[in-house]
Amino acid sequence: MANLATFAYILFADEQVNGLGGLTPFIFIGGIMLVFYFLMVMPQQRERKRWNDMVEALKKNDRVLMNCGIIGKVHAVYKDKNEIVVKVDDDSNTKMTFSLAAVARILDQTKDNSDDK
Question: What are phi and psi for residue 49, nearest 5 degrees?
Fold first, then answer.
């Protein structure tokens, strides 16, 4: 089976037909870079923006799933230190501190009911 370089050589070997002369390899490489950008870079940028928006929306009493599989309620968020304190057990009041990068997703967001009282 021919590799990609051989295919490109066969495809663009006749410079008289396509009329591009020495620019043909640069156009081919530019096309590959364009496809790489649309298939790899743009989706990653979109996912990073979605994650940043999710972390910005974190607040106390939200239930979160951490990357390590721990589920708990947010006790405090320290964005200046890139830390989040998660309460993992209500009975023993166990709290754990994680990096904000360890947040996988918000399971549900609770509304503050303090105004209702």
Answer: -65, -40
